[in-house]
Amino acid sequence: MAIKSFFLDGPAGRLEALLNEGRLDATHSALVCHPHPLHGGTMHNKVVYHAVKALHEFGFPVLRFNFRGAGLSEGEHDHGKGEVDDVRTALDWLDSTFHLPTIFCGFSFGAATGLRAACPDQQVVGLVSLGTPVSAEGRIYNYKFLEHCDKPKLFVSGSLDQYGRQEILKRLVAMASEPKQLVLVEGGAHFFEGHLAEMQTAIRDWTQKYFTAVRQAG
Q: How far apart are CA 216 and CA 73, in angstroms?
């Protein structure tokens, strides 16, 4: 299955995108969002790549894109505000192109930003948050909206994640509505160095549990 490179028409200009094309009989589409662009985050990040690979194994078409101001995407970084609209643009493109229920997956900044767009989107049926940031370099993240987000949610973080301390992350997950699952990868830091396989396993197991009509790619 091929990888297609193209641009989305975003609210602040063109957004550079890649699509891992799925099976003709795909039951879901997926979107994966990258970490903070001001700290080198792009859609080519290793965590993003491995998340895309895990979801693509189910035959899903999987979209990733560069937020405004990252890579070849136009516009300027908007500190997570305008980026929510970038995510909405990508979700709308998946819906109009494939007409399939969508699984959202975001890493770090991509999770904090994308969850805000994905939770209320009726086309989104599941949410994966990788390396969920709770505080980073003076930025404090608020996830109170998860109290009313009743879609299946998977949180995967390293037990040593410097931006998502266990005690705070556990309180966040406890606050979120059911269904939800927290997987702490023992010994993993924020970028899951040396533990990407465990992260992928968590995504695969959760996807299989909630979306059992899916047939894994051979």
A: 32
Q: Rounded CA gap, 176 and 144, in Å?
A: 8
DSSP annotation string for 152-196: -EEEEEETT-TTS-HHHHHHHHHHSPSSEEEEEETT--TT-TT-H
Q: Is residue 117 part of a domain?
A: yes
> Is there a domain that residue 217 lies in?
no
* 23 token code pair: 């099976």
Reported as a single tens digit per residue, the pLDDT across 157-196 is 999 999 999 999 999 999 999 999 999 999 999 999 999 9
Specify if 182 maps to a domain.
Answer: yes
Q: What is the pLDDT of residue 213?
A: 54
Domain count, the chain: 1
CA separation for the pair 199, 212 (Å, rounded): 20
pLDDT tens digit sequence for 6-41: 999 999 999 999 999 999 999 999 999 999 999 999
pLDDT band at 217 (very low <50, low <70, confident <90, very high): very low
CATH number of the domain where residue 186 is located: 3.40.50.1820
Compute the distance between CA of residue 165 and CA of residue 137 in angstroms, rounded to an integer: 14
Locate 134 and state its tokens: 């709770």
Q: Is residue 175 part of a domain?
A: yes
How far apart (Å, rounded) are the C-alpha atoms in residues 101 and 95?
8
User: Angle 215-21-70 (CA atoms, 0-180°, nearest 5)?
Assistant: 125
Task: Reply yes or no on whether the pLDDT at 139 is more than 80.
Answer: no
Domain span at residue 203 reads: 3-210
